[in-house]
C-alpha cells in the first residue's frame, strides 16, 4: 500500500507511517498540500500528517487542509519524538566540531550541546533526516547530526548519544487519511473509537460554544479535545475542533451530530477511527 | 523601560516589543526561559513572548513557563507576520542565486521562490533576522534573505519584493509579562479587558469541562479562547486554557473565578489586561 508523507526518508513522519502501516510503500512529498492531493486523487492509498505536538500545539494548516479536501481520517498514532546525536562510524564525541539539524531540534537539544559539546558549532539544516543524510554523504571531519534513530539506520550513522532532547514529554499525534468515500466505508472497528469534527457557530449567539457542548454533555459523550481558533478577518467568529468518544454511525453520537447540525453554521465530520496507540 | 524578548535584533518578537512599548530598551535573550527568568528576577521590567500563531497553533512551552514562573500578563498584541525578500543595495532580482532564511519562513514563501526565483537555492539559517544580518555583513555575490521589514532597515538592506508569503492570514499573538506582584497592581484599564487562566479538573468527573464552562455561561461571560491539552503521562487528564471578557477583580468575573476554584483541581489566573490591537 502506497502511503504519502511530508519530508525525507528518515523523517519522523516516516516513523509514523510505519507505526500505522508496517508494510507501507513510502511515498515522500515536498509539502502537506501535496500529501492531501495525492490522497484525494487516489495516487496513494493513504496519507499521514502531523496534527498536534505536545509542546508546540495544533498544526492549523493541516486542519485547514482537512476542511478543504475530500479526505477522511481512518487512523491515528502518537509518536514520541526522540533526538539522537549521530556521526559516521569511528567518530567519537571528542571529535565532534559541528552539529547539523533542524533549528527546532537544535533548540530542543541546546542543554545537551552546551554541557557535552561546548566547543561544537550548531548548524541549522532543512530537516533532521536531511542533516543525517548530508553528514553521511559528505564525511566532513568532525561533523555530526541530530535526528531520529531511523535516520541513523537509514544513512548508516552510529548513535553517539540517545535521547538528547531536554524535554522528554515531546509527542506528535499523526493522522492517517484516505479518500472521503473510502474513509466512510471503513468497517466500524471493534474497541474504543473516536470521532473528529470541525464546526462554527452563528456569530453573536451568546454562549454559543456552551450550547454546542451541551449537545455532547447531555448525552454523556466524553470529549478528548477541544480547541477554538479565531477566524482571521472575522472578529468574534471562531472555528471549533472537537474530538470525542464513539463512532459517527452509532447512537448517541449520531443523534448528537444531528443536533449539532441544527445549531452550527458549518459542520464537517473529519472521520471516525480507532483510538491510536502511543509509540515510545 | 527594559524589555526582554527571544531572538536577534530585527526578529518579529522585537516588532511586538516596540508595538507594545514604543520607547523600550531592547534586551534580547537566547531562549524563552531566559525571558521569563529576567522578568521574575526584575532584571527587566517586561518580557514579551509569542503565545499563539494563526497557522501553527499555541506555543505550549510558553503556557508551561507561565504556569511555573511568578509572572503575570499585563498586555497583548496581534502582529501580522510579513516576509520580505531583501539584499544589499544595487542587487536586483535577476542577480539572486541564494536565499537565506529560517526554514519555516522559506516554507511559507516556497510558491514565490519557485515562481520568481526558480534557479535560486534556498539555504536555511537560525532565524530570519540572523539571515538578514549575515547577508548584510558578508556581501556574498547573489545572496538575499527573507526576513521582516524591520530587519531590512536594521541591517541596511533593500527590499526586492514585499509580502512574499503564500498565506497572508499569518498572525502571531504576543503577551507582555511583568513580575506577578506588579501585574496584580496594574491599574484596571478602561476599555475592553480580558482575563487568561489555566486550570485542570478532577479526573473521571463526567462532563467536567462542560461544568467548568457553565461557571462562565450562566453568568453570560463571553469566551475568547478555549483549548484543552492532554497531560502527557496522565491519560484522561487535561489542562484547559481559557481567555474571557472582563477583569479578575470585577463582578461577574470575580464570582465566576471563585466558583471555578470550588470545582477545579488546579487554577492559575495568568492576568487581566486590555484587549490588544492588531498590527498589520
Brief descriptors of the model:
Alpha-Beta Plaits, 5-stranded mixed β-sheet, 35% strand, D-Maltodextrin-Binding Protein, domain 2, homodimer, 280 residues
Structure in words:
By secondary structure, chain A is of the alpha/beta class. Chain A folds into three domains: 1-81 and 170-185, 3-Layer(aba) Sandwich (D-Maltodextrin-Binding Protein, domain 2), CATH 3.40.190; 84-161, Periplasmic binding protein-like II (D-Maltodextrin-Binding Protein, domain 2); 187-280, 2-Layer Sandwich (Alpha-Beta Plaits), CATH 3.30.70. In chain A, 30% of the residues lie in helices and 35% in strands. The first copy, chain A, has helices at residues 12-20, 32-40, 60-68, 103-108, 110-116, 128-138, 149-154, 180-185, 208-217, 253-263; strands spanning 2-6, 25-29, 46-53, 57-58, 71-80, 84-87, 98-101, 121-124, 143-147, 158-161, 171-179, 193-201, 223-230, 238-245, 264-274, 278-279. In chain A, the strands form three sheets. In chain A, strands 1, 2, 3, 4, 5, 11 and 16 form a seven-stranded mixed sheet that branches. A five-stranded mixed sheet of chain A has the order 8-7-9-6-10. Chain A is elongated. The two termini of chain A are 25 Å apart.
Secondary-structure topology with pairs:
The structure is a homodimer of 280-residue chains.
Chain A: E1 2-6, H1 12-20, E2 25-29, H2 32-40, E3 46-53, E4 57-58, H3 60-68, E5 71-80, E6 84-87, E7 98-101, H4 103-108, H5 110-116, E8 121-124, H6 128-138, E9 143-147, H7 149-154, E10 158-161, E11 171-179, H8 180-185, E12 193-201, H9 208-217, E13 223-230, E14 238-245, H10 253-263, E15 264-274, E16 278-279
Parallel strand pairs in A: 1-2, 1-3, 5-16, 7-8, 7-9
Antiparallel strand pairs in A: 3-4, 3-11, 5-11, 6-9, 6-10, 12-14, 12-15, 13-14
Amino acid at each position: 500500500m502506497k502511503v504519502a508523507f511530508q519530508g525525507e526518508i528518515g523523517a519522523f513522519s516516516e516513523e509514523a507511517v510505519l507505526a500505522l502501516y508496517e508494510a507501507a510503500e513510502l511515498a515522500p512529498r515536498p509539502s502537506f498540500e501535496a500529501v492531501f492531493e495525492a490522497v484525494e486523487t487516489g495516487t496513494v492509498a493513504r496519507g499521514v500528517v502531523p496534527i498536534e505536538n505536545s509542546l508546540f500545539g495544533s498544526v492549523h494548516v493541516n486542519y485547514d487542509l482537512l476542511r478543504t479536501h475530500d479526505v477522511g481520517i481512518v487512523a491515528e498514532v502518537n509518536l514520541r519524538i526522540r533526538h539522537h546525536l549521530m556521526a559516521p562510524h569511528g567518530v567519537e564525541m571528542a571529535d565532534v566540531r559541528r552539529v547539523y539539524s533542524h533549528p527546532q531540534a537544535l533548540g530542543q537539544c541546546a542543554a545537551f550541546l552546551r554541557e557535552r559539546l561546548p566547543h561544537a558549532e550548531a548548524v541549522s539544516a532543512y530537516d533532521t533526516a536531511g542533516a543525517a543524510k548530508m553528514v553521511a554523504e559528505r564525511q566532513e571531519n568532525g561533523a555530526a547530526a541530530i535526528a531520529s534513530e531511523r535516520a541513523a539506520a537509514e544513512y548508516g550513522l552510529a548513535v553517539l548519544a540517545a535521547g538528547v532532547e531536554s524535554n522528554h514529554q515531546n509527542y506528535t499525534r499523526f493522522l492517517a487519511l484516505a479518500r472521503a468515500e473510502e474513509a466512510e466505508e471503513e468497517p466500524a472497528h471493534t474497541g474504543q473509537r473516536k470521532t473528529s469534527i470541525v464546526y462554527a457557530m452563528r456569530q453573536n449567539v451568546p454562549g454559543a460554544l456552551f450550547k454546542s457542548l451541551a449537545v455532547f454533555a447531555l448525552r454523556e459523550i466524553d470529549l478528548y479535545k477541544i480547541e477554538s481558533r479565531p477566524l482571521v478577518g472575522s472578529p468574534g467568529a471562531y472555528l471549533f475542533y472537537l474530538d470525542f468518544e464513539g463512532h459517527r454511525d452509532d447512537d448517541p453520537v449520531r443523534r448528537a451530530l444531528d443536533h449539532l447540525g441544527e445549531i452550527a453554521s458549518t459542520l464537517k465530520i473529519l472521520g471516525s477511527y480507532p483510538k491510536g496507540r502511543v509509540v515510545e
